[in-house]
Structure formats: C-alpha cells, structure tokens
Amino acid sequence: MRISRETLEYQAQIAEQMQRHAIARNLRRAGELIAIPDSRILEIYNALRPYRSSTEELLAIADELEYQYQATINAAFIRESAEVYRQRDKLRKKEA
C-alpha cells in the first residue's frame, strides 16, 4: 500500500489551516517524492552526505528532480544544500 501525492496535498492543506506550516511543507516535499523510485531516493540521500558529491553533481540531481519528476520543492532543497555545503567546505574534494 502506498500513499498518493494527492492525499499528502490534502493533509498539507489541513496542516496549513491549523497553522502547522512546517508540517505542510514536509508533506508537500514528501508528495513530490512519490514518483521517484525508492532506489533513486536512496542514491540521492547518499549523495547528500558530506563530502560525497561535488557542486556539479548536486546541481545535476536538482535538475533531474525538477525536470524529470517535477519535484520543484526537493530540487530547491538540493540546490540550497549545494550552496550550504560550498560555504561550509563539505563538498567532495577533487582528486589529484
């Protein structure tokens, strides 16, 4: 049994009505992930670990999420992560 994107959107709307905006954002982000294969989600999760990816790799993942899966919230999260990792020096180092 799997939950649908629409069900998560309905739950997000209810959360917003109850002034639970953070929960609503999380539900919408989860709704976007429904269309992405579990194996790809795990690959993305591993790519987001510190020192695992370059800026270019993270931006490519963001583009994939946005254009292939229409997961704009998650794509923005990945782009923000790439910038934070750059600022905190958490990106994979280029091999010599």
From TrEMBL:
Single annotated GO MF: propanediol dehydratase activity
InterPro entries listed in its UniProt record: Ppandiol/glycerol_DeHydtase_su, Prodiol/glycerol_DeHase__sf_su
Keywords noted in UniProt: Lyase
Biological source species: Raoultella terrigena
Pfam assignment, any one: Dehydratase_SU
Gene3D superfamilies xref list: Propanediol/glycerol dehydratase, small subunit
EC number annotated for this UniProt entry: 4.2.1.28
Protein name: Propanediol dehydratase small subunit
Top EC class, one word: lyase
